Amino acid sequence: MADMTERDFAATDRGTVTRRPTAARPSAWFAPAAVAVGTTQLVLFQLGAGRLAAWVLTVAGVAWLCATAIGRMLPALARLGGRRTEQRRFAGEPTTVELGERADRELWRVRASVSDEPGGLAALAGQLALLDGDIRTMQVHPVADAAVDEFLLHLPGEVGHPELVEAVTSAGGRDVTAERTGPRELDDVPTRALRLATELVEGTDEPRGALRALLGDVEVSWLASTEGLGMGTDELLGQSICLDHPGGGVLLLRRRAGEFTPAEFARARAMTGLAASRKAHAGRPSEGHTARDGSEFAVRGAEDADLPLVRELHERCSNASRHRRYFVAGIPADRRPELSPTPARVDSRLGDSRLGSSLLATSPEGEVVAMGDLDHDGTAGELALLVRDDWQGLGVGSALRDALLTRAREFGLARVSALTQLDNTAMARTLRSAGFKHVGADEPGEWSWTLELRDGTERARPTAREASATVPAGRTLAETSPH
C-alpha cells in the first residue's frame, strides 16, 4: 500500500523549507476504502440489516468527505496566514510611530543610565510592563562602561512620577529623569533633526530653541565668553556643553540630571554649525519703509557687528526715552557692559537677534535709529522698542512692532506681552492698534498688555528655570511716540 503522506520541499529566497505533511492523492487510499465499505456491507446483510446498511454507509461517506475537505483546507489556511505574517515582518519598519494617544494614558519621556551588561534592558522593560507601560520609541547612547537609555512610553493616567522613577531605579537605572510630553515628540531622531534644521534655515527658529527641542530637558543660556566656565568652546564636560554662537559669544547647555553623551554633543555642534552656515550665506536681508515725513528707513536683524551702532543709538536717545525703555534712569546695570566703550560682546538679546530676538531700523546713512526686542521662551514673548528722539512720531516704532509680531507668529508663540508706564499714552495707542489688551498693572504706575496669537501653535514647554532665565532683569518698554 502506498504511503498515506508525502513530504514536499521547496526553495525560497530564504533557503529550502520543508512544508507540512499533506494528504496523499486519492489513488493512494481508494483501495483500502473500497475494501472497508464492502466488508461493512457484507456483515450488515448477514445480520439482516440491509436497510440499516444503506444508512450507515451513506452517513459514513458524508463524514469521510467532510473530514477530507477539512484536512485539505487547514494546510492551505496555515500557509496563507504564514505568508501574511511574513509580509508584515519583512515589509520594513516604519520610521515613525502613530501619533494617536489614548485619553486614559499619558506619554512620558524617560532617561536613565544603565549598566552595559546582558539582561539590563530586559529588566528595565519588565519593570515598565508591571506599570502597564507601552514603549513607543527608544534610543541607546553608548558611553564608557555603561549606556544611556532614552525612551518614550505610554502609561496609565494614574501612574505618577514617583512610581515611574522607582520602577526604573529598581531595574538598575541611575540618574533617572522623567517628564510628561506630547505626541509631537514621537517622531524619530532623524526626522526631528531634519525638521529643526529646516526651521533654522527658513529663519522660523533660533539656535537656543532648536537645541532645546533636539536634546530635551536642557537649559540653554548665552554668555559673552567662556571666562570662568572652566571649559572652552566646542567642548563636552559631563552635564555641560559649550558651543560657539553664530551671532557671537557662546551657548552653554546644562542638563540637571544625567550627563550628555558624545552623540548628543555631535548633534548639538552640527545644529549650531548649520546656523552659522545659514548666517554666512543669508547676509543681512532688510525691508524698506517710508516714514511719515517721507524719509526712508529699513528694518533688519541685528548682528554682533552692529554693537557700535547700537551703542550710538543709546547715546543719542534722551534720558526720558531710555527711562521709558528700561524703567530706570540712564542705562540699567545689565545693559552697561554691552554699551560700555569697550564691551566684549553683545548680550543675549543681540546674540540671538539674527533669528528674531532683536530688529534694527536703519537710516539711508546706515545709522541705527530704532531697536526692537522680542525675548521669548518658546511659548510667550515680551516686546520692547527704543526709538531715537528725532525719529519718534514717524511710524518707525509701528514698523518694528509689526515685524516683531510677524516673527512671533513664525516662532509659534501663543502670546506676546508688553509693559508700559502709565503716562506713556503713545505706546498704549501703538499696542491697542495691534490688538493688545490691557490686562492689569504689575506695580503702581505700570500697565501690562497681552496679545493672544490665536493662530500660533505652542512648542515644547520650557522648564521653570528656562522661563525665568529668558526674562530680562531690566523692565522693558518701547518708544516714546510710536506714531
Let me know the largest β-sheet. 8 strands, mixed
User: Which fold name corresponds to the CATH topology of the largest domain?
Assistant: Aminopeptidase
Mean pLDDT over the full residue set: 73
Please name the CATH architecture of the largest domain: 3-Layer(aba) Sandwich
Q: Terminal Cα separation, in Å?
A: 108 Å
Uncertain residue ranges: 1-28, 82-101, 336-356, 456-483
User: What class do helices, strands and sheet pairing give?
Assistant: alpha+beta
Work out the radius of gyration.
36 Å
CATH homologous superfamily annotation of the largest domain: Gcn5-related N-acetyltransferase (GNAT)
The proportion of residues forming helix, as a percent range, comes to 25-40%
Strand adjacency order, main sheet: 13-14-15-16-17-18-20-19
Number of domains: 4
Assembly classification: single chain
The CATH C-level class name of the largest domain: Alpha Beta
Number of strands: 20
How would you describe the shape?
Answer: elongated
Number of alpha- plus pi-helical segments? 14
Strand % is 15-25%
Protein name: Acetyltransferase (GNAT) family protein
GO molecular function: acyltransferase activity, transferring groups other than amino-acyl groups
Region (Disordered): 1-22, 456-483
Domain ACT: 109-188
